[in-house]
């Protein structure tokens, strides 16, 4: 299962990490970092991404523990989507964090609508 010292990250938290955001760097230092398979995919979908950037992202993702989409997470995501009207991808990410009992680091305040989600909301830049 998951590690209590771990943190779950949303796509925007990883982007901010890559951009050198000191708060995100501090939060994630010496922690196990978990990410949804959705985040893994979103990080690699930028059109015309330079090769070096692609390599850096792949390296970062290799350091993360990727949480796959399981039947239980699917059911959680459906519940979240129905009750919050969040985007489906965000609902899957939130469901993954909540199901695994991990705090989620994100800059997206839409996650505040999810009940029983341990949220670390990053301030706007």
Automatic annotation (TrEMBL):
Question: Could you name the domain of life of the organism this protein comes from?
Answer: Bacteria
UniProt-annotated binding residues for Mg(2+): 10, 90
**One Pfam short name:** PIN
Q: Which UniProt keywords apply?
A: Hydrolase, Magnesium, Metal-binding, Nuclease, Toxin, Toxin-antitoxin system
Which SUPFAM superfamilies does this UniProt record tie to the protein?
PIN domain-like (SSF88723)
Q: Which GO terms describe its molecular function?
A: hydrolase activity; magnesium ion binding; RNA nuclease activity; toxin activity
Q: What family classification does the UniProt entry report for this protein? A: Belongs to the PINc/VapC protein family.
Q: Per its UniProt record, what PANTHER family does this chain match?
A: RIBONUCLEASE VAPC2 (PTHR33653:SF1)
In Swiss-Prot or TrEMBL terms, this protein is called Ribonuclease VapC
């Amino acid at each position: 299962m998951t590690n209590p010292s771990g943190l779950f990250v949303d796509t925007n938290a990883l982007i901010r990490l890559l951009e050198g955001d000191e708060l995100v760097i501090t939060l994630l230092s010496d922690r196990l970092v978990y990410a949804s398979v959705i985040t893994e995919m979103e990080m690699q979908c930028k059109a015309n991404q330079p090769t070096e950037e692609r390599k850096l992202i792949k390296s970062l993702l290799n350091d993360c523990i990727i949480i796959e989409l399981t039947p239980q997470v699917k059911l959680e995501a459906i519940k979240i989507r129905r009750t919050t009207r969040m985007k489906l991808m965000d609902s899957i990410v939130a469901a993954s964090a909540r199901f695994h009992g991990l705090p989620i680091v994100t800059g997206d305040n839409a996650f505040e609508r999810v009940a029983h989600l341990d949220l670390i909301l990053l301030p706007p830049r």
